[in-house]
Amino acid sequence: MTDVALSHARGIILAAQGEPTKRPAIKSFFDPVTFTVSHVVRDPASSACAIIDSVLDYDPASGRTMNDSARALINYVKSESLEVQWLLETHAHADHLSAAPLLQTELGGALAIGREITQVQEAFGKIFNAGSEFQRDGSQFDRLFQDGDRFKIGGLAATVLHVPGHTPACLAYVIGDAVFPGDTLFMPDYGTARCDFPGGDARQLYRSIQRLMHLPDEARMLLCHDYKAPGREQFAWETTVGAERTGNVHVREGVDEDAFVKMRTARDATLSMPNLILPSVQVNMRAGRLPPTEDNGVHYLKIPVNRL
Fold first, then answer.
1. DSSP type of residue 218
2. 20 close to 63: Cβ distance less than 8 angstroms
3. Where are the alpha helices (DSSP H) in the chain?
4. Predicted confidence (pLDDT) at residue 130 exceeds the cutoff of 50
5. What's the pLDDT at 1?
6. pLDDT tens profile 276-287
7. Distance between CA 89 and CA 173 in Å, rounded?
8. Which residues contact 126 (CB under 8 A, 6 or more apart)?
9. How many angstroms separate the CA atoms of 238 and 216, rounded?
10. Which residues lie closer than 8 Å to 81 by C-beta, 6 or more apart?
């Protein structure tokens, strides 16, 4: 069967490679606490931009949120007189809280995620016993993307690839000659995302990565995290499709599906849960909003015992 979405994504990348006005200007912001990279993606021919995978700072010891990471994005957007058209989430993150509601209040933009967020909401709604008041239909977001959906950032062509495996709702955004794969891939020397969260699937992840590897080798790939592989001195979050295809330590050419699944499953069994998974997911499944206040006016985050 022809992969129409992938063919369209390839066309966007190839068209952008030969035309500077179709190549996004990208400013990245690294949060060393959660090892997360947020990206401001700008149309070079206008003031239009999108923000991908923002961070709301959170101190688990005190239960306090802070806006330093989000404020850096806001200050940059305002200093450059940019118009935010989209707030894009690659998935419901388990390692940091999203700052999308704050950014939307201050900067505008439509908040988007994959339509399979409903599966994440259903699974974690049960884990957190969120109750019937928690809608599990994705209605907290402005747009639910599906595989092959197309959109614009000013004059920049963009499309969506559904790349499940890390979570059911993972998306890669192809914007001009750049690919934003979320947690699906890390730098070639670090490998791939874990698949042991509810709804994760190592076999699905392998197949999703193979789709990404069929994009043009020269396409820029801007990652969501970097944990600095042993022996590397600097954090890094930009590579190419070709570098991933030929050099990724987990899934380079020659690694077949069964070998990857065996490796990924064994590796995941040794990993502890992310430090912020419990606050992050119950906030991010609500599009970055805290659970409703209780009768004393205070927001509370739940800690399910012996569930994860």
1. T
2. no
3. 4-17, 68-79, 100-107, 117-127, 202-213, 241-247, 257-268, 277-284
4. yes
5. 46
6. 999 999 999 999
7. 9
8. none
9. 15
10. 47
Q: Which domains does the chain have, with CATH numbers?
A: 4-284 (3.60.15.10)
Pair of tokens at residue 308: 């994860």
Phi and psi (nearest 5°) for 79?
A: -65, -30
Q: Report the C-alpha gap between 49 and 188 in whole angstroms.
A: 28
How high does pLDDT run on average in the chain? Answer: 96
Tokens coding 59: 């101190």
Q: What is the mean pLDDT of residues 253-270?
A: 97
**Over 56-97, what HEC string results?**
EEEECCCCEEECHHHHHHHHHHHHCCCEEEEEECCCCCCCCE
pLDDT for 157 beyond 70 = yes
Length of the chain, in residues: 308
Rounded to whole angstroms, how far apart are CA atoms 95 and 279? 9
Task: Say how far apart CA 137 and CA 116 lie, in whole Å.
Answer: 9
Place of tokens 């509810």: 198
**Measured distance CA(4)–CA(229) in Å, rounded:** 35
Average pLDDT over every residue of 91-120: 97
Mean pLDDT of 212-232: 96
Q: How far apart are CA 113 and CA 90, in angstroms?
A: 6
24 has pLDDT over 50: yes
